[in-house]
């Protein structure tokens, strides 16, 4: 599948905003700590991915009722669904000048992940969090995502790479009273 930037300006995939707030002290501190352990940007990207995947539980898996959407809040509260975890990973990567996009898949509901740009190409990564039956890993040599869409069942990969969260995603996150409410309002399309 060919991935398509929704804006041709690569600097948009390095920008900070209300959601991907990589200028926030919590994000900067976390990024700096991880960067000390990495020899290069590839190693840093893998460490940041594993940090988000493994140390921030997916709130549905853990039963946490809190809804987070801002990257710094995800890092502080240590919880989030796929979208929120993607926002946190994007912020950590952008904090170290690694172009990062938000991208989506559609199953019964829309699922969020990121794409990182290395060597002139985008590589999708899924920091959702592993559990039995889910084994997502950081890879620049072929995707190892949490889920693979069944196109015969109408599931799909969305090829568009967004510099900011899709409005349908951000809207439900901001409007949710708690995770059970969020689960009832997750978008089924973009």
TrEMBL record:
It comes from the Bacteria. Residues 29-127 form the Transglutaminase-like domain. Pfam families: Transglut_core (PF01841). Transmembrane segments: none annotated. InterPro entries: Papain-like_cys_pep_sf, Transglutaminase-like. This is Transglutaminase. It comes from Streptomyces griseicoloratus.
